[in-house]
């Protein structure tokens, strides 16, 4: 009788345990994603049939307790904390056959760390400059805008300077970047002319401060852009984002007064002129001829300046992915080039280190 009872218990336990394995493999991922802190899946309803009357409940719990603990430990390992959302990589991606991280996984982790460091540095620098401007220009709006626009146009000069140097060495043949950055500087220059017409540059101190910050800012961006274009573009995005927020707050606070004032002549000519090619060129997130401002008063001017800063932010964000920037007018030009059969080579590089590396590699390839 004891032998029979032991055989029955052993057979049921083996069949129950074996039936659980494919079920766990099939449903583990979905179950774990829905509720990582789940209960024991081996409940008493898994032992069914008339034979369960022969097994004491406590004995059944003890029998499967060890296996339930193992399953719980294995499932808990699948809960991975994702701290960097922009370039999140699955936990098992890039692992070799033995579960060890591959070289691509290690390089991806290093790149994410570098990106976070670059962005943290940019945010710290931007917030420091903002605190200085808040202290000096608490209630002098036009003077603050003059300083902002003097500074905001500098990065595009720096970008073009570095790209022209790359072109001189034969490292760069992508015209879209030069076209877009020049259009951005053209837009910021007209913002600056508007602020000068409004009297933002009336004080000598404001001109002195803005111009000397611009000189220092230029060389800083040149070095930053040569070492890491991604970091330089993100820094410019931070500056343009602050400009957008500044104009937006000013419009909401002074909107009714601005509607009573006339628009500066330079603003009317720039936004409503016949030649708006460069106005469309810096807005890479929209198709050409889709934005045509109406300027009736000073309120409309500041609304369009604010919207320009938003377009700059989108363009700078797109530039942070290497090779992602395209001129809004390039799509029609590409169609003409395909029809004529004339396609120019697009040589480029990401930072001066990458340029030097590609230059040496191409020289060795030509010698062979």
Automatic annotation (TrEMBL):
<dbReference type="GO" id="GO:0005739">
    <property type="term" value="C:mitochondrion"/>
</dbReference>
<keyword id="KW-0560">Oxidoreductase</keyword>
<dbReference type="GO" id="GO:0046872">
    <property type="term" value="F:metal ion binding"/>
</dbReference>
<dbReference type="GO" id="GO:0106292">
    <property type="term" value="F:superoxide-generating NADPH oxidase activity"/>
</dbReference>
<keyword id="KW-0813">Transport</keyword>
<dbReference type="GO" id="GO:0009916">
    <property type="term" value="F:alternative oxidase activity"/>
</dbReference>
<keyword id="KW-0812">Transmembrane</keyword>
<keyword id="KW-0472">Membrane</keyword>
<feature type="transmembrane region" description="Helical">
    <location>
        <begin position="145"/>
        <end position="166"/>
    </location>
</feature>
<dbReference type="GO" id="GO:0009579">
    <property type="term" value="C:thylakoid"/>
</dbReference>
<dbReference type="InterPro" id="IPR002680">
    <property type="entry name" value="AOX"/>
</dbReference>
<feature type="compositionally biased region" description="Basic and acidic residues">
    <location>
        <begin position="92"/>
        <end position="101"/>
    </location>
</feature>
<keyword id="KW-0679">Respiratory chain</keyword>
<protein>
    <recommendedName>
        <fullName>Ubiquinol oxidase</fullName>
        <ecNumber>1.10.3.11</ecNumber>
    </recommendedName>
</protein>
<comment type="similarity">
    <text>Belongs to the alternative oxidase family.</text>
</comment>
<keyword id="KW-1133">Transmembrane helix</keyword>
<dbReference type="GO" id="GO:0098803">
    <property type="term" value="C:respiratory chain complex"/>
</dbReference>
<dbReference type="InterPro" id="IPR038659">
    <property type="entry name" value="AOX_sf"/>
</dbReference>
<feature type="region of interest" description="Disordered">
    <location>
        <begin position="87"/>
        <end position="107"/>
    </location>
</feature>
<keyword id="KW-0479">Metal-binding</keyword>
<keyword id="KW-0249">Electron transport</keyword>
<dbReference type="GO" id="GO:0016020">
    <property type="term" value="C:membrane"/>
</dbReference>
<dbReference type="Pfam" id="PF01786">
    <property type="entry name" value="AOX"/>
</dbReference>
<dbReference type="GO" id="GO:0102721">
    <property type="term" value="F:ubiquinol:oxygen oxidoreductase activity"/>
</dbReference>
<dbReference type="GO" id="GO:0016117">
    <property type="term" value="P:carotenoid biosynthetic process"/>
</dbReference>
<keyword id="KW-0408">Iron</keyword>
<feature type="transmembrane region" description="Helical">
    <location>
        <begin position="208"/>
        <end position="227"/>
    </location>
</feature>
<dbReference type="GO" id="GO:0010230">
    <property type="term" value="P:alternative respiration"/>
</dbReference>
């Amino acid at each position: 009788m004891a032998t029979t009872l032991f055989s029955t218990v052993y057979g049921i336990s083996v069949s129950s345990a074996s039936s659980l394995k494919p079920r766990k493999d099939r449903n583990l991922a979905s179950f774990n994603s829905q509720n990582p802190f789940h209960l024991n899946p081996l409940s008493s309803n898994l032992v069914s049939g008339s034979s369960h009357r022969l097994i004491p409940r406590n004995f059944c719990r003890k029998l499967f307790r060890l296996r339930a603990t193992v399953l719980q430990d294995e499932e808990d390992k699948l809960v991975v904390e994702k701290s960097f959302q922009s370039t999140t990589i699955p936990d098992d991606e890039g692992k070799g056959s033995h579960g060890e991280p591959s070289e691509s996984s290690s390089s991806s982790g290093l790149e994410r760390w570098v990106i976070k460091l670059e962005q943290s540095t940019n945010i710290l620098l931007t917030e420091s400059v903002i605190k200085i401007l808040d202290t000096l220009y608490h209630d002098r709006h036009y003077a603050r805008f003059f300083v902002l626009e003097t500074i905001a146009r500098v990065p595009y000069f720096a970008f073009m300077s570095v790209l022209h140097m790359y072109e001189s060495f034969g490292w760069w043949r992508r015209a879209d970047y030069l076209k877009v950055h020049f259009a951005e500087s053209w837009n910021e220059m007209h913002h600056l002319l508007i602020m000068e017409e409004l009297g933002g540059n009336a004080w000598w101190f404001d001109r002195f401060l803005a111009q000397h910050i611009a000189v220092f800012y230029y060389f800083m961006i040149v070095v930053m852009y040569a070492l890491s274009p991604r970091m330089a573009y993100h820094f410019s995005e931070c500056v343009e984002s602050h400009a957008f927020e500044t104009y937006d707050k000013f419009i909401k606070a002074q909107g009714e007064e601005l509607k009573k004032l006339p628009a500066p002549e330079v603003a009317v000519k720039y936004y409503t002129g016949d030649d708006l090619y460069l106005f469309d060129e810096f807005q890479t997130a929209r198709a050409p001829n889709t934005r045509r401002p109406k300027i009736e008063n000073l309120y409309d001017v500041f609304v369009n300046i604010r919207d320009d800063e938003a377009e700059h932010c989108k363009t700078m964000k797109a530039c942070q992915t290497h090779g992602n920037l395209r001129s809004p007018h390039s799509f029609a030009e590409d169609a003409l080039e395909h029809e004529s059969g004339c396609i120019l080579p697009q040589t480029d590089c990401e930072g001066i280190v990458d340029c030097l590396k590609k230059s040496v590699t191409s020289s060795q390839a030509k010698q062979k």
